[in-house]
Here is the input.
Amino acid sequence: MNLNAPDQISNYIGGSLRAPIHGKYFDNINPATGEVYSQTPDSDASDIEMAVGAAKAAFPNWSTTPAEERFKVLNRIAQLIDENLDALALAETNDNGKPLWLSKRVDIPRASSNFRFFATGLLHFSAESHSMEDRAVNYTIRQPIGVVGCISPWNLPLYLFSWKIAPALAAGNCVIAKPSEVTPMTGYLLSLICKEAGLPDGVLNIVHGNGPNCGSAIVKHPDIKAISFTGSTRAGRDIAATAAPMFKKISLELGGKNPNIIFADCDWDKMMRTTVQSSFSNQGQICLCGSRVLVEESVYEKFKEEFVARVKKLTVGDPLDEQSKQGAVVSKLHFDKVMNCIALAKEEGGKVLAGGNALQPEGRCAKGYFIEPTVVEGLGANCRTNMEEIFGPVVTLQSFKTEDEALQLANSSDYGLSATIWTQDISRANRMAMKVHSGIIWVNTWLLRDLRTPFGGFKNSGVGREGGWEAMRFFTEPKNVCVEL
Ligand code: NAD
Here is the structure.
């Protein structure tokens, strides 16, 4: 297959590559160089209408295709992603600014795992039966919903796009999917892979465009009966406001402001290594990054000294260079947002211990959007810096004296996506895990993912769960049949 990134991206509707109906495009920029390198369709409601027509036409066949056949085609997509790892990783890095080694080791392998996982999952998916002794038997059928919408963000482009599409297709739905307009390229390349894998026309339709014109047309369309969305809490709120009165099923995976809670008795070296990663991986642009580092007072100074020394050594630079630990942030808009957050942290009285500045590497990346990994201390729990999601290479340090104080700080956020707890005291780890208000808790590790587990957040971090059977249940309607004996 030839998976080179084209100058002009197309929509994938009804199995064909199509220009947007109104012929409008916007620039796609490589954030590491600041240069325009392709054009992205600026699709709108008319393109979504066409995609919904194609999906509705494909649904009767796809929803009744034997599980074994659906497994084969989804598994073939996974294989083709693996076979094209290098091309996909390069496209992801050029679109997003993340280091190429990261795209190769994490993003693209996870995209193929998502397809493989749900391809095999569909072979094992089953529903319940409830017997009423000798009176009656109930059995529950889980049927695909019909046409569903999947909308994803820019931070883990193909990884999160496929995390939604794979279970939706596995469950027998036809899909209208929109990748982020900021990182559309691997979504486009996935169209080519689906074609090559033999996915029937119209089963998956990938439409490119921005949130207000294209994303909201998906949410508003009366024939799209479920919306699976990952992105900001702001957009999630708008989506819920539109979809709820239409009684659509919604799954919302939103922002985070995750605590990383460090007790003095932890495995120090492992904690330190992992905390650098959990703070700054992907330039801090992972919803699961621990952006509030909470450290037990007795080891706070020791932690600060060692952590700051390690952070200062992180090399920021050309994402194509194997030596770069950190690449560019995703866009000029996001660069400005993060730099404003750093300025706000200073205004609020924060002391910058490391970073705090934009960075201009020499050579081809001189006009890229690079920010030094930044560590701030001296701010209280209730300031904006510690309440609002920054979603960039910026963490704050706070200290606590007792377990109760750690809990109070951890739970002081309106978000509740994930938390990390570092301690060798197994009882304390479990006590804390019970009481922290987050959907995902890691003890003595971070970002260790088992795709069978429920994934999602409390509070402003979202509604519903993805992963494993949770996703298969979301993408199906249960129907109970009661038979009197
Ligand atoms: P965003 O909300 O701006 O955009 C996400 C997607 O939604 C894009 O495809 C966008 O075009 C679309 N969109 C925007 N407004 C819309 C609307 N009104 N209707 C329909 N679609 C709309 O988010 P982003 O900036 O791309 O991503 C960063 C955010 O995503 C952060 O808040 C981050 O925490 C969150 N995120 C959450 C998770 C999770 O699993 N909880 C994972 C990754 C990222």
User: Anything to note?
Assistant: The pocket of nicotinamide-adenine-dinucleotide is lined by residues 151-155, 160, 178, 180-181, 210-211, 215-216, 219, 230-232, 235, 238-239, 253-256, 287, 389, 391, 417, 457, 461-462 (CB under 6 Å).
